[in-house]
Model the fold of this input.
Amino acid sequence: VLTVTLNAALDLTYQVDGLRPGASHRVSSVHAQAGGKGINVARVLASLGHSVTITGLVAGSVGVEIRGELEAAGLRDELIDVDGQSRRTVTVVDGDDATVFNEPGDGLRLDWPDVRRRIGALIEPDAIVVASGSLPAAAPPDAYAQLVRDVHERGGRIIVDTAGPALLDAASAGADLLKPNDEELLAATGGADALAGSTLLLALGAGAVAVSLGPDGLMIVRADEVVTARPASFVNGNPTGAGDAAVAALALALEDDLPMHEAARRAVALSAAAVAHPLAGHVDQRVHRELLTRQTIEGEAR
Amino acid sequence: VLTVTLNAALDLTYQVDGLRPGASHRVSSVHAQAGGKGINVARVLASLGHSVTITGLVAGSVGVEIRGELEAAGLRDELIDVDGQSRRTVTVVDGDDATVFNEPGDGLRLDWPDVRRRIGALIEPDAIVVASGSLPAAAPPDAYAQLVRDVHERGGRIIVDTAGPALLDAASAGADLLKPNDEELLAATGGADALAGSTLLLALGAGAVAVSLGPDGLMIVRADEVVTARPASFVNGNPTGAGDAAVAALALALEDDLPMHEAARRAVALSAAAVAHPLAGHVDQRVHRELLTRQTIEGEAR
Done:
């Protein structure tokens, strides 16, 4: 599996005791981790023992920190250095509450044809490619559509997890699987519900659509079939990165040509196990094992 | 002037629109600047056209960012690279409200005798040395006292701006001028008021004590004289770095052997001009010029 994170970030998590707007806070602990949705996907895959390559864009001293953390975590990184500065995110955790500050992704300066060529060189035949997250301001709006075509030319398959016009573009280019959440799906397609929105993406050209529904699980829609999987019990925790864990499971299912109900089941179990872990890109292995045996699956032919 | 910042930081300022605990925020603008009190002092001195050298400790990729920003700002840096990682501070600005998150200063690993020798090599005869801020966990508790002795051995004079036991240590070592704020002074000395606390620091061995009093200005206490200067009008703005601007003015006054009432007058004007500027380490030059002519000075012999 090759994950592509065009808008990689340095994710900082600060523990504080009582967040009060207007006050000065002593941070009691700092956790710095390479982030961005594709990197979270790769981290989950590696934690399950799978081989994964990380590519995407990094820049400046924040990029040095991103690569340094990946190296320390033992993750193989083929990130591409461009000019400018990578973005950071800061999550302030106060007890169970998380307050998030996302730097804008406008700090990169890049030569897109060169970046596209270098990513293309990393795509092996039969590759499963995962492209996740927003596009940096410096990338062309159809960057994911170009990537879909490049993957298909090389004989691979691609999952795209993004929002807005880039989601529609990836569908039109024929992405094998799209993974929006329900809000992103309705906003991008204007569909009345998740099934209608997914049907529109299929009509544009997508092979399949997996819609993450938060605590309600996941729905996978194809031309001939709809499957919904939901966790048997509510899992409390940090939902950041839950969608990325679902994508990790979907990438493995695509690689092994698993049937849709099995793909959905595994995606929901891994996603809930990510919620149970306090850090994005990590899963609680005990919750994972437990949920793999205890889920509700509904499926129907269309 | 040589400024010493043993706990240098990368100061990040995020503009957001409506800070809500528990929510996710898009940061509309990011400002990254080398910080720590000594670096703020140096930045103010440089903005006034004075030659200044910055030393202190930096580490890791955050240290690279700190040095990169200083270079981009045209500030001469003789910072010492040590192991570990420098700290960051994040200030979230929402309209007039600033919410601050300070990473702990426990990320540095260092060989103090080597650091002390390298700082010593930067102290020229007749130097004015400014040592500001908290000590990193890895420095010895009497690091500022050692620095005071090193400066005096080389024929220089030193201003120390710190709090807690380090303030008392610097006094005992005979620092030429201490610059606590009133809260720090009362907390460290247990004095009933600023005059009593300052008198205790003089008794320990300090040459003079300048106490910053927030909007009430500054009091300088020596064995034979007390001078208070206050701004003629209240200045609205960001008080972060106001004390550092006062120290910058005091360093220049010490260098030129100005009388105390003149030192206090200039320190209050520069401090208020720093409040009028939104960023720490910067001064509003118009406010500075205006306030230099419009202050209230009170002095008395003791």
Q: What stands out?
A: Residues 260-275 of chain A form the longest helix (16 residues). The first strand of chain A starts at residue 2 and ends at 5. Residues 243 and 271 of chain A are 6 Å apart (CA to CA). The mean pLDDT of chain A is 94.
